[in-house]
Automatic annotation (TrEMBL):
It holds the Pfam family Ivy. Belongs to the ivy family. The keyword Electron transport does not apply. This is Lysozyme inhibitor. It comes from Pseudomonas lundensis. It comes from the Bacteria. SUPFAM superfamilies: Inhibitor of vertebrate lysozyme, Ivy (SSF89872).
Length: 138
């Protein structure tokens, strides 16, 4: 190995050691340490109107799809329905729920959307239809 290559390799190793523990850390460890703990919790936090189910809403609907009757509802953040919406589908027995959280940043034309509860394709269709019905394009 040439002297230059040895020095370059040693520099790379020293740089790796200088960055130290961060290179060896694992995500579960970081989620319990400052400053990462607070950022991680904020990423997983939903707004109060979503967590408590307290929003502006119309009556829920019973929708039949694939021979099953689903309960479908929509609500939005009070005084900010244009930018903060939640569509929810409940299973026929009411023991499962899935959602579509739609949030629009200030001055944005489109919503950032996130499915909740790992819905399958049938549930995604119901959620997307509920969203579209409550957000007509005309």
């Amino acid at each position: 190995m040439t002297g230059f290559l040895k020095r370059a390799l040693m520099g790379w190793v020293v740089a790796g050691v200088a960055t130290g523990v961060a290179a060896e850390s694992r995500l579960p460890e970081l989620t319990t340490q400052a400053p990462y703990k607070q950022a991680y919790a904020a990423m997983l936090a939903y707004p109060d109107w979503v967590k408590t189910g307290q929003g502006t809403a119309a009556p829920v609907e019973k929708v039949v799809m694939d021979g099953k009757t689903w309960t479908v509802g929509q609500m939005c953040k009070p005084h900010d329905c244009a930018a903060n919406q939640l569509n929810v589908v409940f299973s026929p027995d009411g023991k499962q729920a899935w959602g579509l959280l739609s949030v629009r940043a200030e001055n944005a034309e489109t919503f950032d959307q996130q499915f909740l509860g790992m819905p399958d394709d049938t549930i995604k269709k119901l959620l997307n239809k509920s969203f579209a019905d409550n957000n007509p394009t005309d």
